[in-house]
Design a protein that fits this description.
Elements lengths: L1 E6 L4 H5 L1 H15 L10 E5 L5 E8 L2
Length: 62
């Protein structure tokens, strides 16, 4: 089993302030970690500060 986080840096927010946006994504995800089962198949979209979808995280079965 492995955790994968994919973030697209093509949006305007991600290009203008990539570090701040990535920090926000990681902070939001870590705050919500207890809401999700850490089992293969769990996944959720991730959003930037403008609430634009920029990627997803997933738990994969190897």
């Amino acid at each position: 089993m492995r955790f994968v986080l994919e973030v697209n840096f093509d949006t305007e927010n991600m290009q203008l302030k990539p570090l701040e946006e990535l920090q926000k994504i990681l902070r939001d995800w870590s705050a919500k970690i207890t809401m999700y089962p850490l089992v293969p198949g769990a996944q959720e979209d991730v959003f930037d500060s403008d609430n634009e979808e920029v990627g997803e995280w997933a738990i994969l079965d190897d």
